[in-house]
Specification:
- The complex is a heterodimer of chains A (about 260) and B (about 325).
- Helix content of chain A is about 75%, strand content about 0%.
- Chain A is mostly helical.
- Chain A starts with a helix and ends in an 8-residue tail after the last helix.
- In chain B, α2 packs antiparallel against α5 and α5 runs antiparallel to α6.
- Chain B contains 7 helices and 14 strands.
- In chain B, a hairpin with a 2-residue loop joins β10 and β11.
- In chain B, about 35% of the residues lie in helices and about 35% in strands.
- By secondary structure, chain B is α+β, with helices and mostly antiparallel strands.
- The chains are: A mainly alpha (about 260), B alpha+beta (about 325).
């Protein structure tokens, strides 16, 4: 039943992608008027699917790679919808398109046969509400980082100064929001969960270390931006590196570097 | 000269250099398994690379000078930068506490807490069978009353629950349960459900009516053959003892038997197939954790303040 909702979300997102591409090709000045509703619908389908899955397994469904991919995809959609609703100076359509494409890719990856989609109740170490907070807040932060990544790519490609300035503002606000959520989720709640599960709040496990590397990268960005007032190319490049680290922390570490997080 | 060094030590440029160094080295170190024996690095890495890892102490990186010195310099940089920034604002009559002050203070406390943990943390794993007891001198004794291993229908673990009795030096006792993610805290000691182990024994009856208990992996010699009790195997819902009989000399030859209670074996009879569970309890004393909590609260408040003040600023 939960998979039906995820598939529905996938289909709706594909439709949104098609509409956005058509609007971009037509060089329309305004972004398509449907994205907010379609992406909200897609997000709600993911949310509903996760609720059904959680009831089925008797715990919040955020404990394996499949669920992680779906949650991450959902938070990207949420960050895009928030951006679309909050954007004061109009929406940059390419940023929406890149963000939607990344969320779509994550759901596509979740549906691949390489990622087991069975809904199983979690093993004892994962039965903790600190883990739930850890995962949800970290992915919420990563959702915003994804939008900042999309805006960074747009910044590097854009030619008009006004568009660059707007992309820079998106990068800044989304990193600020993402940083707050990521720090809480990945580092603080993660450390509390680790303390309860393994008796140590920090173990220099590869996943922890990569989360710290990601955090330090965005810390460097914020220091450049807030203290040095550095905007532009360097900021955009740091955010792109930060996003690459974000994705590696989530997926690369699980498959390439064994550690305490090998199950997620 | 002194003020020049001080200025450099508290500069953002220096902080960014240190952050970059910590990012790059940490990144490299995640590719190197930590805390292995020296021989491991020479065997599993190209010899030249293994030597470099060992020479740079990248095999115990987070306790090495290559990490501790830059971390110390970063702490110094952060401390100096926070203090001078704060003094400058007071002189300029801008006494408002900034979110970044709280975050920096939180990180400084976190570094101190981390150092306390690194140097003063005590920990140990004990394996207890129901009825067994350990003493933590002068603090309490802990007796394992029971140990449960709950499983889901598909056989995956659902919970490990140790029921323990704690006895204090003044004679008071209390009973508690310890589960994964639900540790028991007694004073400064935290006790976690960490692992479990099952041990199997075979009780054999000899022709004279005497019982002999043998552990997994042990056995006896008979007519040039080694007879070993290799463990338990589930067959048709019943535990069977796996016995391996191996010829000790000449052509290798092996026979396997699955035997149950009452079966004759050699000159013996299997009187009982016994399984005992041991609960792995992890005892931790970490004097740094209280400060970690304080630092986390400060960092959280600081982040909220930064977010609240910055997000509405048009720039």
């Amino acid at each position: 039943m939960d998979l039906i909702f995820f598939t529905f979300s996938f289909g709706v997102m594909a439709a949104s992608l098609a509409i956005q591409i058509v609007y971009l090709i037509r060089s329309s000045k305004k972004p398509d008027p449907f994205s907010t509703i379609i992406l909200s619908l897609s997000f709600l389908a993911i949310l509903l699917g996760l609720i059904i899955r959680s009831i089925k397994i008797g715990f919040v469904a955020v404990t394996n790679t499949f669920e992680g991919l779906v949650v991450f995809a959902g938070f990207i959609l949420l960050a895009l919808v928030i951006y679309r609703l909050k954007a004061r100076k109009g929406v940059l359509a390419p940023v929406m398109l890149i963000g939607t494409a990344l969320s779509f890719t994550l759901l596509a990856l979740a549906s691949s046969p390489l990622i087991p989609a069975e809904a199983n109740p979690p093993i004892p170490a994962l039965r903790s509400y600190w883990l739930v907070l850890h995962v949800l807040f970290a992915f919420a932060g990563e959702g915003f980082f994804t939008v900042s990544f999309a805006a960074s790519l747009y910044y590097l490609a854009a030619k008009e100064e006004q568009k660059k300035a707007e992309a820079d503002r998106i990068i800044y606000t989304t990193v600020l929001a993402g940083y707050l959520l990521f720090t809480l989720g990945a580092l603080i709640f993660g450390a509390i969960w680790a303390k309860y599960a393994w008796g140590a709040y920090w173990s220099w496990d590869p996943k922890e270390t990569w989360a710290l590397i990601t955090w330090l990268t965005y810390t460097a960005y914020l220091h450049f931006r807030l203290i040095r007032k550095v905007k532009g190319r360097i900021s955009a490049i740091i955010c792109i590196i930060g996003f690459i680290f974000t994705v590696f922390t989530f997926l690369g570490v699980n498959y390439l570097l064994p550690g305490l997080h090998s199950y997620s | 000269m002194g003020s020049k060094i001080l200025k450099h030590l508290r500069s953002l440029r220096f902080a960014l250099v240190l952050i970059s160094y910590l990012i790059i080295t940490s990144l490299v170190v995640t590719l190197i398994p930590q805390n292995q024996e020296t021989g491991y690095y020479l065997e599993y890495f190209p010899r030249f690379l293994g030597r470099i890892i060992l020479a740079l102490h990248f095999h115990r990186f987070y306790r090495s000078l290559a990490f501790l010195l830059p971390a110390l310099l970063f702490t110094l940089n952060l401390g100096l930068c926070s203090i001078t920034g704060f003094i400058r604002r007071i002189r300029a009559d801008r006494k408002r506490i900034l979110g970044s002050d709280l975050i920096h203070l939180g990180i400084l406390i976190l570094v101190v807490a981390g150092s306390l943990t690194l140097f003063l943390r005590k920990e140990g794993l004990v394996m207890l069978e129901p009825g067994e007891k350990i003493e933590i001198e002068g603090e309490f004794s802990l007796r394992l009353l029971s140990f449960e291993h709950l499983k889901y229908e598909d056989g995956r673990p659902k919970a490990w629950i140790s029921r323990v009795e704690v006895e204090f030096p003044d004679g008071r006792t209390s009973t508690s349960s310890i589960e994964v993610n639900k540790p028991l805290k007694i004073g400064s000691t935290e006790i976690l459900q960490y692992s479990y182990q099952e041990e199997h024994h075979l009780k054999l009856l000899d022709p004279h009516g005497s019982s002999h208990l043998i552990e997994t992996g042990t056995g006896y010699r008979e007519n040039g053959r080694a007879i070993v009790f290799a463990g338990l195997v589930e067959e048709q819902g019943e535990a069977r003892a796996l016995i391996i009989s191996r010829k000790e000399q000449g052509e290798p030859e092996e026979e396997r038997f699955l035997l149950k209670k009452g079966d004759p074996f050699g000159g013996y009879t299997i009187e009982e197939v016994l399984t005992s569970s041991q609960s792995g309890l992890y005892l931790v004393q970490d004097p740094g954790f209280g400060m970690v909590v304080a630092s986390v609260i400060l960092i959280f408040l600081g982040l909220v303040l930064v977010f609240y003040r910055r997000i509405s600023v048009k720039d």
